[in-house]
Each structure stands twice: as C-alpha cells, then as structure tokens.
Design goal:
Length: 203
C-alpha cells in the first residue's frame, strides 16, 4: 500500500493547503499542504497500521501573512506480533505569518493489547504577532509521552500539553505546556500525570 499523498500548496495569494492522505498498511500519513500568502495549512493524514503503527502526517504551515497551521495526523494502529506500539502523532503546523494559531499535534496511535500507544505530536507555534500555540497530541495508553504544547510568540497563549492514558505497560509523562507570548499571554498547562502548572503571564 502506498504512503498517503502529500497534498499540494494553496494559491500564491490566497488558498488553503490540501489535507494529506491517510497511509495504507505499513505506510505513514501524508503531510498537509502549505498555505500561500493567506490561508490555512492542510491537516496531516492518519498513519497506516503496521507491526509498529506508522506516524501521522505533519500539518501544513499557515499563510505567510495570515492563517493557521494544520493539525497533525493521528498515529496508526500497532498490530504486532512484536513491537506492536502505536504510531507517533504528526506535528501540528506552525503559523508562520503575522496572525494565526499553530495546529494541534496528532494523537498517538493505539498499541496492540499489552503494548504502549504512540507518542502525541507537538503543537505548532503561533503567529509572529498574534496567535496561540497548538495543543500537544494525546496518548491513548501506555508509557509514551504526550505531545508538548506549541509556543506563542509575541501575543497569545501557549498550547496545552497532551494527556496520557493508563495501561499495564506503565504511564508516560503528560506533555509540557507551551510558553505564552513574550508581550502577553498564558502559558499552557502540563497534562496529567504531570503536575499541572500555574497559568502565568509574560510581560
């Protein structure tokens, strides 16, 4: 089976990037396309199933002037018989323009019974002037770590870290919260089982 399609970019002036295709058996998800000057990045595709689950595709970046980053794709299912952990979630796309929010990291894939889920993807960073960082991807179960929340840059809130589900294989760390903007914004919360951080301002 083929890897999920890598989707094309948006128009030079305006247009959203296309969503990445989902991966087939043993193949990762396709990356989302990047936006042009104004528009949102496409979402990454879901990783395909495999002995070890395949990674989700990365979210595309937002427009050079305005637009949100795309969300990362979820990791694929681990089927075994050995090494049957879930796939890693794809990273969220960054907002690279003046305004826009970072995309959320993809959730980690499910592992086969008795195996850990995949790690969550990292959230994308917010826009240069204003925008929130994306939330980190969650982990369904096991010892993998939740994705870190993306950072805000000048004004905006950091993304929350991804949470982790319990499993016989142990419990991983919740993702770290992203940093708030340098001028103004809340820091993102760390997810359980980490201690939840206080929300704070950077001025």
């Amino acid at each position: 089976m083929a890897q999920g399609d890598q989707r094309g970019p948006g128009g030079l002036l305006y247009g959203n990037g296309g969503n990445g295709g989902n991966g087939g058996i043993g193949q990762p998800g396709g990356a989302g396309g990047d936006a042009g000057l104004i528009g949102n990045g496409g979402n990454g595709g879901i990783g395909g199933p495999g002995a070890t689950g395949l990674a989700g595709g990365a979210g595309g970046v937002g427009g050079l002037l305005f637009g949100d980053g795309g969300n990362g794709g979820a990791g694929g299912l681990g089927t075994g018989p050995v090494g049957a952990t879930g796939g890693i979630g794809g990273p969220g796309g960054a907002a690279v323009g003046l305004f826009g929010h970072g995309g959320a990291g993809g959730a980690g894939g499910l592992g086969k019974a008795g195996f850990a889920g995949g790690a969550g993807g990292t959230g994308g960073t917010g826009g240069l002037l204003y925008g929130n960082g994306g939330n980190g991807g969650n982990v369904p179960s096991g010892a993998a770590d939740g994705g870190a929340g993306g950072d805000a840059r000048l004004i905006g809130n950091g993304g929350d870290g991804g949470s982790v589900g319990a499993a016989p294989t142990g419990i991983g760390n919740g993702g770290n919260g992203g940093n708030g903007g340098w001028l103004y914004g809340d820091g993102g919360s760390e997810a359980a089982p980490c201690k939840v951080s206080a929300r704070w301002y950077r001025r």
